[in-house]
Amino acid sequence: MADDGGWDWDWVSGDGLLRLDDPEEWDAAWERGADHLGTGVIGLALNCSLSDASPRILRAMQLPDAAQRGLAFTAAGHAARLHGDLTPALFAALRAEGPGGVAEHPIRDTLTFVPFRRLPPWFKWRAVVTGVRNKLEGWWLRSEDAVGDAWRAVRRRRS
Fold it and tell me: Are 29 and 44 in contact (CB under 8 A)?
């Protein structure tokens, strides 16, 4: 901790940035091109209001470093989990990135923690598709188990 009672934010090593609760500190780090902006934006998602964190998450999603950009998408997932909602701009950014890449888990977090009635149409469609796919996979796995059990029973009878 700093002598003034606040946290020291170490932008070089990333230490303490998950406790970041000062959007202006993140903005200053952005302006000077600091490292670990993705880690810092996760801290904002965990410790600030959605309205304060959202514009910074969106900016961090544009970072040139792929790892830091991925952390920005992780921050969006944390925001969905903590606030039960996302801003229209964050919904749009997740949709633009799409499933299968760095947005896969944040999209799943959004579908899990944001009530269906608050989801935009594309996310509602993803929720339905995901639900149907999960149900079909569950049936498939249960049928594989049943067929395997039957096959083992037949083989035991032959022995």
Answer: no
Q: How many CB atoms are closer than 10 A to CB 149? A: 10
Residue 91 structure tokens? 């919904």
pTM over 0.90? The answer is no
Q: Report the C-alpha gap between 19 and 41 in whole angstroms.
A: 10
- Measuring CA to CA, which residue among 43, 35, 38, 37 is closest to residue 18? 43
What is the dihedral sign for C-alpha 33, 15, 74, 51?
negative
Residues 115, 71: Cα–Cα separation, whole Å? 24
Tell me the C-alpha distance between 70 and 67, whole Å.
5
* Residue of 144, 115, 111 lying closest to 129 (CA atoms): 111
Q: Name the burial class of residue 155, with classes exposed (0-12), middle (13-18) and buried (19+) by CB atoms within 10 angstroms of its CB.
A: exposed
User: Model confidence over 51-88: pLDDT tens digits?
Assistant: 999 999 999 999 999 999 999 999 999 999 999 999 99
